[in-house]
Amino acid sequence: MAEKFYDFDPAEMLDSDEAVEIFLTEAMATDDAKLIAAALGVVARAKGMSKIASETGLAREHLYKCLSETGNPTLETTVAVLKAMGFHLAPRQDGAAA
What is the pLDDT of residues 9-46, one digit of tens each? Predict the structure, then answer.
């Protein structure tokens, strides 16, 4: 019997603000810029890339490119995308409780 592989899109699992917050928090905890950019892309797809593009004033194609595993969004883009998603950057000391 042949194995079946199914497409899995994590964006489909992000159906609440709480799920998005947990997903982004976990990604940011890695300190891996590429993973964080990709996680922002997943959330942008979950919330609607066209909507995020409209709210940030950035082109959808630009967002798809910079919010990917190979992307490298500027801080300005990151802040704009987070704001459009209803989040913001906030400093926190290492070891501080979330």
Answer: 888 889 899 999 999 999 999 999 999 999 999 999 99
pTM, two decimals, is: 0.84
Give the type of residue at 32: D
Residue 42 to residue 53: CA distance in whole angstroms:
14
Place of tokens 């590429």: 34
**End-to-end Cα separation, the chain, in angstroms:** 47
**Single-letter amino acid code for the residue at 51:** K
Residue 76, number of CB atoms within 10 A of its CB: 10
Contact 63, 81 (CB under 8 A): yes
DSSP string computed for the chain: ---------GGGG--SHHHHHHHHHHHHHTT-HHHHHHHHHHHHHHH-HHHHHHHHT--HHHHHHHTSTT----HHHHHHHHHHTT-------TT---
